[in-house]
Design a protein that fits this description.
Helix content: 25-40%
Low-confidence stretches: 10-29
Oligomer: single chain
Length: about 475
């Protein structure tokens, strides 16, 4: 049975090829330094400790672990935000969320949407003394995405899975992707089982270009098939695949046979059998796609990047989804459990196998890295990441820079607007509502158990000045106290 991709490619490929060949000719028409494919796997909500090589004592992730064994594993890799939409925009544009205005997750159309956020628009928060900036509800078309950058080099671009960067008119096909399978304004799947609908279906729940295929089919298996079909059809042409699995976001679901397997397994720090089944389905399909690259002889021609958009979700501590130990806290929070993510890069011949790097990196680094391999240098444009090519060659190299996070919103009952700066081993969390700031020495206290804000006022003051300077440089929108 043909996949959705195979059905549409027969109709659209010739017209797409003609159009983008013309576009290629009138663009910069640069000849790349390297001829290679790109497979960027951007998982949803996968926690730092959710894979075997980073310490999971419950989940089975042999294929992801194999990626790490055959490439480079980053132990200090950060998402651009502790939540999804800001990180996704940052990865695709190379810019901090503060610059794009996407600093919170974007509401889908059925949730009321978010719309355009003007500089002077704020949200009032009942019972709070501060009003907070309205979140930008879509990735502006003026932003240049990684997919759009690759058009001039003759790449055919595919998006599969979660998009969550705006409604119609701001989908992947509007941002440089030739093909879009499953990406729309949804932040999570209504269900992981075909036909992927909730109990009470509404119009806006429908996936883009992902019609039902086989009743009960698991979504991760479908996504894996779509990626494999695309690789098979593009084997002789350069391709960029942005595979953004809906897993492992809620609703937490899994195949019955896998759930039963984990119900029989002894629990460790982690122990949710349904989440474990979901993680394993993700891992199985990562393996399926990598195996297809190998079968077609494309392994040495393909740069594979595996990462996540934020830390793992704990949820109800009495029945946790996952456990980010030894990191503190979870998705949505300013601690390491919310922003540190698993990241692996594999490219035989370019990246030596079995490397581990403690060098801090962040979501915005992928565009500069890919551009360096293409032989392109940014010209007077804002890119907040840095190329990692030198780190691939020497994993002990440390890029001297500071890192920043900006979440000027309230969330639930215990998250107040915050901003973070990491400089060297020190990390400062600033709370806009006047709550006591937190300073941690991540080298000596990776679990962030000891607040040094009173004992190290000089360092705290230095980091706060860096944060204020960054606010000005990025034109970050800040909360405002009610009059």
């Amino acid at each position: 049975m043909k996949t959705s991709f195979q059905k549409i490619i027969e109709i659209l490929f010739c017209s797409f090829l003609l159009f983008f060949s013309s576009l290629h000719a009138v663009c910069l028409a640069q000849k790349p330094k390297e001829e290679f494919n790109i497979l960027l796997i951007h998982v949803d909500d996968l926690g730092w400790a959710d894979i075997g090589v980073l310490g999971s004592d419950f989940y089975a992730t042999p294929n992801i672990d194999r990626l790490a064994a055959e490439g480079i594993l980053f132990t200090n890799s950060y998402a651009a935000a502790a939540i999804c939409s800001p990180t996704r925009a940052a990865l695709l544009t190379g810019k901090y969320p503060a610059r794009t205005g996407i600093t919170d997750w974007i509401r889908a159309k059925f949730q009321g949407g978010s719309g355009m956020a003007l500089p002077d628009e704020f949200e009032e928060n009942p019972g709070k003394e501060w009003k907070t900036p309205k979140n930008q509800g879509f990735l502006p078309l003026e932003e240049i995405t990684l997919a759009e950058r690759l058009l001039q080099y003759g790449y055919t671009n595919l998006h599969v899975g979660k998009w969550h960067l705006g409604e119609e008119g701001h989908y992947p096909e509007d941002q440089g992707f030739h093909f879009n399978v499953g990406g729309n304004d949804l932040g999570q799947p209504p269900s992981y089982f075909d036909p992927y609908l909730p109990q009470n279906p509404v119009e806006y729940y429908e996936f883009k270009n992902l019609p039902p295929r086989k009743g009960g089919e698991f979504l991760m298996d479908r996504e894996g098939d779509e990626v494999v079909a695309f690789i098979q059809n593009q084997r002789d042409r350069k391709f960029f695949i942005h595979w953004a699995p809906y897993a492992v976001h809620t609703p937490i679901m899994g195949k019955a046979e896998l759930i039963e397997k984990y119900q029989q397994k002894q629990k460790g720090n982690q122990g949710n059998p349904v989440y474990a089944a979901l993680v394993e389905s993700l891992d199985q399909n990562v393996g399926k796609v990598i195996e297809e690259l190998e079968r077609l002889g494309l392994t040495k021609k393909t740069m594979v990047i595996f990462t996540s958009d934020n830390g793992g979700l704990i949820g109800n501590p009495k029945q946790p989804v996952t456990n980010n130990f030894p990191l503190r806290s979870q998705k949505g929070y300013p601690y390491e459990g919310g922003i540190r993510v698993p990241t692996v890069v594999k490219w035989p011949g370019k990246i030596a196998a079995g490397q581990v790097s403690d060098t801090p990196i962040i979501s915005m680094d992928w565009i500069p890295t890919i551009l360096e391999y293409l032989g392109e240098k940014s010209q007077n444009e804002i890119l907040d990441g840095q190329s990692l090519v030198s780190v691939f060659q020497n994993p002990d190299q440390n890029i001297q820079r500071d890192f920043f996070w900006h979440f000027p919103h309230y969330r639930g009952s215990d998250v107040v607007p915050y901003a973070i700066v990491r400089s060297g081993d020190f990390k400062l969390i600033h709370y806009f509502d006047g709550s006591k700031a937190e300073l941690f020495d991540l080298k000596n206290d990776p679990r962030e158990s000891q607040n040094l804000i009173n004992s190290n006022p000089v360092i705290a003051d230095q980091l706060m000045r860096k944060l204020e300077k960054w606010f000005a440089e990025t034109n970050a929108r800040l909360p405002v106290r009610l009059e």
